[in-house]
Design goal:
By secondary structure, the chain is of the alpha+beta class. It contains 16 helices and four strands. Helix 11 runs antiparallel to helix 12.
């Protein structure tokens, strides 16, 4: 018997023993059990408990929580919105109301109703007390402004969010600041924000920020541009992405047209490919491990060599250090 079932057995015993005095405790217990069921995907059982909790709730807080859970469990979007609106009216300023407002914004955004989404997210942000939650809501509001083609207003919202203080949402705020600034025609400031997002540890938009930096700077033939491309390729190596899709992306990022590359090995094992790359780095080279191709092999290459003269210089060093290699021309 699992923990949720144990709690249900206890609940039944309490109801049988205490009779009329039990509903207040029963509603709270049912919601606690339902929360666990929702977290583990037992939605059918959760619906039964939540429905009973709505009927037996003896306080506005319990009823609001039960209605909020009902909205989350509702499969029909219109019915979910109706329940959420009810919660926002009953619990203004409370955690349940903030969650309901956020969810209403999410539903509106998914329907393309960006103004309605913006209104709900801003209202929720105005009453959210936890810094991270408020900044998350403001980031969503900025996204709505971007979808409405109002990048300047998006920047204003993001500046407001950043001014609230540092939190784990900072990386997301930096990233969307970059998006908004680029939409305003300011690539230099956009790059600064993308770089800040890339450097912010644990940011879910870290790889997206790096990809944006490659778009801005990585297409050139300079060593700096090559470094950005290499960072992106290394960041995507060994991920769960589809190999064929990653290989296609890698081909686009390997370097601008007209550049040379040098292959130093192809391995069926990612660990062996990385070991080869490390040995090359110790000798002063700048290799990357490409994501596995459709043949399942991880290739170690030096990419983006701007000319045959530059490629030949690298080849000389490889020969001197005893490395095997294959020079790849721009034509393949």
């Amino acid at each position: 018997m699992n923990a949720a079932e144990n709690r249900l057995v206890c609940l039944v015993m309490i109801l049988a023993f205490w009779g009329p005095a039990a509903p207040r405790l029963a509603a709270q217990d049912m919601l606690d059990v339902a929360a666990g069921q929702m977290a583990t995907g037992q939605t059918a059982d959760a619906r039964v408990l939540v429905g009973s909790a709505v009927e037996s709730a003896t306080s506005p807080k319990q009823r609001n929580r039960a209605l909020l859970y009902q909205a989350y469990l509702e499969t029909d979007e219109d019915s979910a919105s109706t329940r959420l609106e009810l919660v926002t009216g009953l619990a203004a300023g409370q955690a349940e109301a903030i969650s309901a407002r956020e969810r209403l914004g999410d539903l509106a955004f998914s329907r393309g109703e960006y103004r309605q989404a913006l209104t709900n997210w801003l209202k929720a942000a105005d009453t959210a007390e936890i810094l991270k939650n408020r900044q998350n809501l403001l980031a969503k509001a900025a996204r709505a402004r971007l979808r409405m083609n109002n990048p300047q207003q998006a920047i204003e919202i993001l500046e407001r969010a950043l001014a609230l203080g540092r939190s784990s949402e900072y990386g997301t705020l930096y990233y969307y600041s970059g998006v908004a600034l680029l939409a305003c025609g300011d690539p230099e400031k956009a790059a600064e924000q993308y770089l800040a997002a890339y450097r912010f540890a644990g940011n879910p938009y870290q790889l997206a920020a790096l990809s944006r930096l490659v778009e801005l700077y990585g297409r050139g033939k300079s060593a700096h541009a090559r470094q950005w491309r290499n960072r992106l390729i290394e960041s995507t190596a060994g991920t769960v992405f589809d190999p064929a899709e990653v290989s296609s992306t890698t081909d686009r990022l390997a370097g601008p047209p007209g550049t040379y590359s040098i292959q130093l090995g192809a391995f069926s094992s990612l660990s062996r490919a990385r070991a080869q790359a490390e040995s090359l780095k110790h000798q002063g080279f700048d290799p990357v491990v490409l994501p596995a191709g459709s043949d399942g092999l991880y290739r170690v290459r030096i990419l983006g060599l701007a000319s045959r003269l530059e490629a030949d210089e690298v080849v000389k060093k490889l020969k001197k250090n005893g490395f095997s290699y294959q020079l790849l021309s721009p034509e393949g």
